[in-house]
Amino acid sequence: MAFEAPKESFSGVVYPVTIGKDVQETFGGENTLPFHKFEGEVPNRPLIALEIQDVAPEDWPETVRRVYADVSDDPVKWAQYCQDELKARAIALRLIGTHPDNKDLSADDAVKVVKDVLGAVKVPLIILGSNHVEKDSEVLPKVAEAAKGYNCIIGKAQEANYKTIAAAAMANEHKLIAMSELDINLSKQLNILLTQMGFDKEKIITDPMCSALGYGLEYTYSVMERIRLAALAQNDEVMQPPMLGDVGMYVWKIKETQAGEDILPEWGSLEERAILWEAMTASSLMLSGAELIIMRHPRAVELVEKFVDELM
Amino acid sequence: MLIIGEKLSIIAKRVREAMAKRDKGPIQEIAKRQYEAGAGMIDANIGPAEDGGEELMEWMVTTIQEAVPLPVCLDTTNYAAIEAGLKVHNNDYGLPMINSTSNDPERFPMLELAAKYNCLIIGLTVGKGGLPADEEERAAIAAEIMARAMEYGVPLENLYLDPLVLQIATTQEQAIKVIRAVEMFQQLNEPPMKTVVGLSNISNGCPKNVRPILNKYYFLMLERVGLTAAIADPVEMKEAFEEKELFEKVLNGEEIEDKELMRVMKKTIDVIEGKTLYAHSYLEM
Questions:
Q1: Do B277 and A189 touch (CB under 8 A)?
Q2: What ipTM was reported for this prediction?
Q3: pLDDT by residue (tens digit) across A273-285?
């Protein structure tokens, strides 16, 4: 008798999330573990968004900064470059310039950037604040309003500021990133709080907080795995949103993506190493369940897309 | 079931202040309230008590026993303070208990005291390193503590094995493992080994309104697998016993009349058994 591989099936399903207006992208929607097409339905490919900023990326390491050297002084040009030249399927605009320790740009400054970028590209936009609790609750409601009708993702709502940000996302019909700090129980708690205020749980994207390979990736990996198992095996409705891996910002601030061959010759080519580092971090998180990934280097994205091709 | 009243702990501000001032009033009032709610022993947690621990424990034991006819559970890491407490303890009310020894060599001297004064002793199933991962690890440590107890001349019927209850809010998967450990410990000897838990730690870090619910139902789940003793809030445990019959029904999948109570019980059972993920608002879902 021929061998038949045992199949595991689950009662839960991850919510599919569709974003964008003229060009739309959908991620999530699977009823099985990541890429387990042999056990269930995996209707959508994970979505990789290229990250841009409202201000020039002065703190990005040279390896990734030079890719955007000609466009990164202007978020519109930068966004167009990602869409037209690099064929990005989505763009993540981080309003880092609004952070009080950065340029402390105002909510109105942010609104202008968001409107300009929305007017210049057709691919879906993810709008991220600066992760400053107070400033985000000032900036994100305004940009959410400015982006009404574009079906964006707004983020990130945290326990300390979720009310204002979620209310704005709800009123302006956007999706919402709910971030908690590497704690599965707090992640569930935040999703409960959001649903209790009337936010549709099918419009949430869970961010369990990312970390780079070598810097606690295993914690993120494990929390993501457990969230996904709660969604599928326990059919836990509040744990069924798709998950985000905000990879780029964590990878491009570590030693491995910055130390040159002159300092660490035994580590080999900096460029190759840094790109691989981002690709490895991203693909690992996809394996633990992330369906939405934010990345910086286009060659790292290419590698990950190739990896997904083989698994899909 | 022996309920060891947990309320006389240095962690509570009122108790700490009364201890510092040697003010008998609050100590005796709290001891009496626990006695009236059904406590069979009173825990006196004086913390590490590095300075003046002996005199403080003496004072605690006599103050408590002046107010209630119960034995005292002497709760400190200070060896000399334990001995001082044992010396003044009135054994007419029952044998005192030492809280605690473990598999950490620094705690072995407590076994010496338990043998010398013929008293009860808690054996916390942790070693020198990290926390036990599961019930098997706990049982292995328990066996070592039992061997050590015999070596020191402590009769096994005086040893209460404690599997170490952990917080459900951060280590949910441990809740069910502790229940299994209580089952396993009993099989380590004939007659079965006695067991004890520091119950309220299960709900440490949980919202105020959730704590008694988790405490009570976790207690009932431990009780039905044969737990001998619990360091707990006797008022909560009294309520738990009142709800026991209903809880058993819900646990067996039967319907009870009070649907809201049934919902709360079911959700709590699911969280304890790890069938749903814990969140602070798990009851509201």
A1: no
A2: 0.86
A3: 999 999 999 999 9
